[in-house]
Task: structure prediction
Amino acid sequence: MMGTTDTGWWSAAVVTTALHCSAMAAWIPVRRFRIVYPFAIVGCGAFVAVAVDVRLYVLSLVGLTIGLWPTRGLLTLWSHEIARGVTRERYDWPRSHLAFCVLCVTGGAIAASALAR
Result:
């Protein structure tokens, strides 16, 4: 797969990863998260980009970033609570936010599939 895609998609993967990690670091301002999350995204994303398709990685990550936009305030609130030691029994994720996130990621995957043909 690596040889069949042009370098533009690999450049887009680098830019998308940097933007997504920056957004998540702003929305979840916890030092440990800022250190670990980019390694997790790059590790999992490298597998998807190489084994499956780099377009799937790029467009799904764009979808995830857009899909998490409505929930950014809750993510920040919950991370501050966790940093203060407050734990909840449940973190109620609004269903509309969850549906929007799933729709965006699925839309990105479908777009990648359409571009792969």
The chain has five helices and no strands. The CA atoms of residues 4 and 28 lie 36 Å apart. Helices lie at 7-27, 31-52, 54-68, 72-84, 95-116.
